[in-house]
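re: that chain from earlier
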Amino acid sequence: MQTLNIGALSIEVTLKEVGNVHLSVHPPHGRVTMVAPLGTRLDVARAYAISKLGWIRAQQQRLLTQSRETPRRYITRETHLLWGRRYLLQVKELDAKPGVHHDHRRITLTVRPGTPPEKRAEIIHAWHKSLLHAAVPELIRHWEAVLGVKVRRHFLQRMKTRWGSCNAQAGHIRLNTELVKKPRDLVSYVVLHEMAHLIEPDHGERFVALLQQHYPAWREARAELNALPLSAETWPEQ
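^ sequence. v structure.
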């Protein structure tokens, strides 16, 4: 990997066996990457990046102004997102095993008296993972049948800049636990996106054709996903 510096802008450049240049601006802070065909000279990559400076700055500005969730304190009557809907949180302090459940209006968090916010956050996060672990296998089975591929394992973890990732060689996909806050159809899109990498590792024309064939509204789904509020949490680097 090489780094292009254009004024104050840094762009991570990776050369791969791709047919076209792919420029990306990543949430949450607007990190810029470029994937270019093998053999591309750095001065050619620089000229291309300069031609796209207006687009890069527009994308970075969009991320900077994108709405963010206010920091969660995990107290009663605080709102929390689940599958694209807002729920009121109800906290019960009982001398019993901690747990979480929800109905059509609220999420109820049961904790022992004096449980600090960071521990409450851990309990909610574990619940989020359990919901995703229950929902994701069905989506994987669906897209396995459609794409004719096999996912050997899936993993859930917090990610700072991605909704998911794929290790095509191992047949593994990873999904961001923040997806539990997004509408289910967008979760399905992310699962498809990562599983399509089992066929085409890069984001080239063949990959786009797969998305277009099996999820024609993929561009709208991607735009909606990236327009939704970002988490206010700061996480350790993965």
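Helices lie at 42-51, 53-65, 117-147, 184-196, 205-214, 218-227.
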